[in-house]
Amino acid sequence: MAPSTRSILFTSLLTIPSLILAQKTAFLEDFAILDEKDERKPPFAASTVNKWDAGSYPQFCYDTANAAKGTDDPRRNCEIANVEVFDVAYADCPDKPWTVCRCTDAQLSVDQMVNAFGRVPPGVRSHVVHIFILDGSRPDGSIGKSGGSNNDRFVIRGPIDDAAFAHESFHSVDKGFSSQSTFTDAYDADSCVPDNYANSSPAEDFAQLGTWLDYDINGVPISSYLDKDQGCMKNQLEAVRAYATQYIDLNTSECFDRRPNDGNVTPAASTGVKALDVDDGPAPPITFEFEDEW
Ligand SMILES: [Zn+2]
């Protein structure tokens, strides 16, 4: 074997372990226990909700509504006529309301949506521009629970636990931290991850660790209802705490000038010649950078 070939082979073998997240023991099977009782959750900020008149939609909501639910499900994520748009002003961020969308067939009610997002600490929430709450039904009639995050915007599908709103928001807090050595070294030094889902990728591990800290700091200490030594993931928890505690801890967490809202689409005003066309059907399904199934 020529030296150059051997060195290429050797290099590629060396890089394989860093591309695949080795599986670690899951501390919990999943995070259901965090939302099992109200007092365990971070408090939600009070809010004022104003519904928009029909006919105008943030670009993210319009494009998401118009896309097919999946490659195996040609239904639109939401018929445009069923998209509700709300401005939600939270008491912890009164001057910067969020514009959020909900499909009328979503399993989560307006109140559930508003309060679950309101539990996300303001400094974490401010990393998110828009959210869209959708129906979680599948072609076989079952109801799934999932989320997807792209470009600081996320969707929630189905009757999901509140922790999912924190999880999706933490994908926007990540900004590449989960692939940096500060985090991966901490991961390597530990013998467990928070739950099975955290084994999916470093980014999913980071989002679960952020959610864990949010509930642990702002709800009640998790150790008060879970008698189990967290030492097996202490390096990861410390790394995320050091990186994001100013956004997480309600004693320091503040909303900030987040990225600007999308422009609005007003289909009725822009139809023109299109009005004569037959329905083109939904756009292809959206590929999310982070696609989460619970
Ligand atoms: Zn995720």
Strand content: 15-25%
Low-confidence segments? 1-19, 272-278
| Individual helix count | 9
Order of helices and strands: HEEEHEEEEHHEEEHHEHHEHE
Structural class: alpha/beta
**Multimer state:** single chain
Mean pLDDT: 91
Number of strands: 13
Q: For the largest sheet, list the strands in their spatial order.
A: 2-6-7-8-10-9-13
Cα gyration radius (Å): 21 Å
List the domain count as a whole number.
Answer: 1
Cα separation of the termini: 48 Å
Q: What general form does the structure show?
A: globular
Q: Mind summarizing the main beta sheet?
A: 7 strands, mixed
Description:
The chain is of the alpha/beta class. 33% of the residues lie in helices and 19% in strands. It has helices at 3-19, 59-66, 110-119, 122-125, 163-174, 181-189, 202-218, 234-248, 267-270, and strands at residues 25-28, 47-51, 57-58, 68-70, 73-76, 83-90, 98-103, 130-134, 146-150, 153-157, 192-195, 264-265, 290-293. A 7-stranded mixed β-sheet has the order 2-6-7-8-10-9-13, sandwiched between helices. The radius of gyration is 21 Å and the shape is globular. The N and C termini lie far apart (48 Å). The chain binds zinc ion (ZN). Zinc ion is lined by residues 167, 171, 204, 207, 290, 292. Residues 1-22 form the signal peptide. Keywords: Signal.
In summary, what is this structure?
Keywords: Signal. The chain is α/β, with parallel strands linked by helices and 294 residues long. It is built from nine helices and 13 strands.
Characteristic key phrases:
about 290 residues; alpha/beta; 7-stranded mixed β-sheet; about 35% helix; binds zinc ion
